Amino acid sequence: MGTWPAPDLDTIGTSEEVQIITRRQDDTLSRPTTIWIVRVGDDLYVRSGFGATNPWYRRAIARPTGRIRAGGLDRAVSFDVADPSVRSTIDAAYRAKYHRYPSNILGPMVADDAASAALRLRPTDND
């Protein structure tokens, strides 16, 4: 697992929404789930707005490889639980990127439930 190529990082990090594709228990790919994404430095993060019980999040934790689609790109990724020490930085990134959304939409993304269900996406060689 490596680091994001700069063009991919820029394209995915500036996308309004991305599609996350996780693996089911039988190792087949799930249907895409559309979610928000933020860039923090050279890392990409997603959160489950409904917390750790959301099905896509549970699949990502159980089988931590899948795919991401954004801005015309389709990339293999690993899902790593985000380090809790970057929570405030991720919160700030969500607030900055999605500030135009009302608080009833943005608020859950920076609340405790979503923050505890944050994943860092890393590119893999499994294309």
Task: Please provide a brief summary of the model.
The chain is α+β, with helices and mostly antiparallel strands and 127 residues long. The chain has five helices and seven strands. Pfam families: DUF2255 (PF10012).
Describe the 3D structure.
The chain has 5 helices and 7 strands, in the order H-E-E-E-E-H-E-E-H-H-H-E. It is α+β, with helices and mostly antiparallel strands. The chain has one domain: Electron Transport, Fmn-binding Protein, Chain A (Pnp Oxidase, Chain A), CATH 2.30.110. A 7-stranded antiparallel beta sheet has the order 2-1-5-6-7-4-3. Strand 3 (38-40) and strand 4 form a beta hairpin. The longest helix has 11 residues, at 87-97. The N and C termini lie close together (12 Å). It comes from Kibdelosporangium aridum.
Radius of gyration: 13 Å
- How many helices in DSSP terms? 5
Query: Pairing-aware structural class of the strands and helices?
Result: alpha+beta
Task: State mean pLDDT (0 to 100 scale).
Answer: 95
Distance between the termini: 12 Å
Most strands sheet: 7 strands, antiparallel
- CATH homologous superfamily caption: Electron Transport, Fmn-binding Protein, Chain A
Structural features:
alpha+beta; Pnp Oxidase, Chain A; 7 strands; single chain; 127 residues; globular; seven-stranded antiparallel sheet
